[in-house]
Amino acid sequence: MTASDLQSLFVTNLVRYNSGDRRRWRLIVGDVKVYSLATHAHCNWAVTPSGSASEVDAVERLADRLREDHPIITVG
Q1: Could you identify which of 5, 41, 51, 66 might form a hypothetical disulfide with 55, taking C-beta atoms 3.0 to 4.6 angstroms apart as the criterion?
Q2: For the chain, how big is the Rg over CA atoms in Å?
Q3: Which residues make Cβ contacts (< 8 Å) with residue 25, sequence separation at least 6?
């Protein structure tokens, strides 16, 4: 899975389970940052959501779930 695939997965799930449109959620999620496996062996990605407290909470809860299924991704 690539960073852009993961961002799309975030947006798809956030639209499905919360109100709002894809564009808004894409802005809230922001870019998926990919880190080196040498320093982040268990999970090599992170997101830094911005938005209201409830929007950020929704992204962070989803990030916790997605880390279980997709801990390692590639740049792209």
Answers
A1: 51
A2: 12
A3: 10, 11, 14, 15, 18
The residue range of the domain holding 19 is: 3-69
Joined together, the tokens standing for residue 27 give 């802005």
pLDDT in tens, 20-31: 999 999 999 999
User: For residue 45, what are the β-bridge partners?
Assistant: 34
Model-level pTM?
0.93
**Does residue 59 belong to any structural domain of this protein?**
yes
CA dihedral 24, 27, 29, 34 (to 10 degrees): 150
Q: How far apart are CA 73 and CA 31, in angstroms?
A: 13
Tokens representing 71 are 């801990």
